[in-house]
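Re: your question from the hallway

Yes, I did run it. Sequences:
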Amino acid sequence: MNAERQDRGLLRVNEEECKGCGLCVEACPPKAIAMGERMNHYGYRTAMYKGSGCTACGICFLVCPEPGAITVLRTVKRMVAALQTETGVAACASN
Amino acid sequence: MSSESIAEYEVAYAKPKAFYERYERKEELQHATHYCPGCGHGTVHKMLARAIDDLGIKDRTILVGPVGCSVFTYYYFDVGNVQAAHGRASAVATAMKRSHPGSVVVSYQGDGDLSAIGSAEILHAANRGENITVIFVNNAVYSMTGGQAAPTTLIGQKTTTTPDGRNPLNEGYPLRVSELLATLEAPVYIERVGLGDNKQVAHADRAIRRAMENQVRGLGFSLIEVLSPCPTIWKMKPVDAQRWVREEMEKTFPLGVYRDRTKDATPRPMPKTAPALEALPGILGIDGDEDLAEDAVCATDAAIDLRVRVAGFGGQGVLLLGEVLAEAGLDAGLEVSWLPSYGPEMRSGTSNCHVRLAHEPIDSPLVTAPNVLIAMNEPSLRKFDANVQPGGWVIYNGEEFPPDCARQDVHVLARPFTQIADALGDARAANMVMLGALLEMTPGLPQASIDAALRRLVKNPKWVELDECALTRGRELAREVLQEVLQEV
Ligand SMILES: Cc1ncc(C[n+]2csc(CCOP(=O)(O)OP(=O)(O)O)c2C)c(N)n1
Ligand code: SF4
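Structure:
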């Protein structure tokens, strides 16, 4: 059973547009962003989402000087896809 | 039994629609701005774009870009764009707003642009309370040109032109633009915000939106000054530059609202829209059928080189006399200049003008040695009489020519022109009687050109009639004297 807590948000970084200034890393209140090790095509180390912790507050988006380097998504539904048991009884949501 | 939770997402924050999809500045790098990593301009651009999106005004926004690092705003914002000469953005924005009252006009300027070369433009735009929004990005240096000192450079701050740090004894003190403009009556909203930390950034975003909203509501002049990092010129890492805004710039430039009259402000009346371009000739009285200079073939073969000085008291029609003469010359296809001499003399004293008519191009509109002097009173005669060229004419409004002004080498026509005009119907027509005399003495201008000039400059038909009468009378008077002169010879 997967009862992992769902984040309120999710972050996408456009690696081609990011110039690696690091302002988002500094800004993110739950510290969910880090600088990646990899260089992008233009020679910048780019920001990357750590994979969890985003609250969709949007402050990283606002401090980022590039128009489209960061997109913040907000969780709207926590949907449970019930896997049918062999008996046909749906599982209850758990989160 | 197993269950799995799958999240569904909606976009909370993404590239605003007010930005172009791609930026066609160059062949390559169309996916990103030209700004350095961590540049405050980028952040401010985003806030402005968000405000444009949220207010739904993309289709009627006109962004006036400056000279400076943000010179390329037109490559990024999918709105109406103008790029102004250095410092002139708020003047250009004034024109944009007045000629397109329904638009939302933003003047985007750096601190070198706005507070140095453009200090006059912003001062007067603010003082007039133009219904525009000014985004003033203050990074305390001229960045685009490599880091020279700006009026906003902090005391002690090293720049390429203040290598030992700004010294107020030599370079003056940092100019506090928001405080300065807040001493003016007209502005509705002035706030200084910063990009120094999250709280400041979030607040700056709201302030910019308010400044845009004010304009949409027609309230008047709003300016947001943004303390903005320039990591490159400051030679700092972006995060350190952000801290420098917070810890250093703010000491000199305190954040805060310096003016907020949005609550009491009532929408300003829209300025009248500018007339259409096609309507201008009509407004200026130079419409179509009257053929103007462009295809004028010179209508006179007579050798004409008139250098006329007309002088009198204000109100005697001195300038109009000169204008009719010049306009007639223009109509006849001659080279022409008319130079009114305004100045303190406009207030009850002598007023005068210089008129030149010639076949050859005119080198200077100044007439220092006239070949005709029209003196409408004695002081004017005394002032200019001595400079009349030998062989020239003096047309003097007076019963008797002052004996001490008499010269052997010039011709004189002295008559009480004011009384003569009075007898014709109005003493104010004296100027035209004198012009009539001049025209008779220096033949060559076709009568048709004189009539056309009169009609163009005198709108009231009653006066046209009187002036025509006056011109004729002047010609008669001149003929009498001319005969005397001929008999003398
Ligand atoms: C008439 C004129 N004078 C001088 C310049 C050179 N010049 C270009 S940008 C600039 C200063 C820009 O500084 P600022 O407004 O602070 O903008 P920033 O680059 O810092 O964003 C100057 C002086 C110019 N382009 N035109
Ligand atoms: S030099 Fe400074 S102001 Fe200019 S783009 Fe770079 S960081 Fe921005």
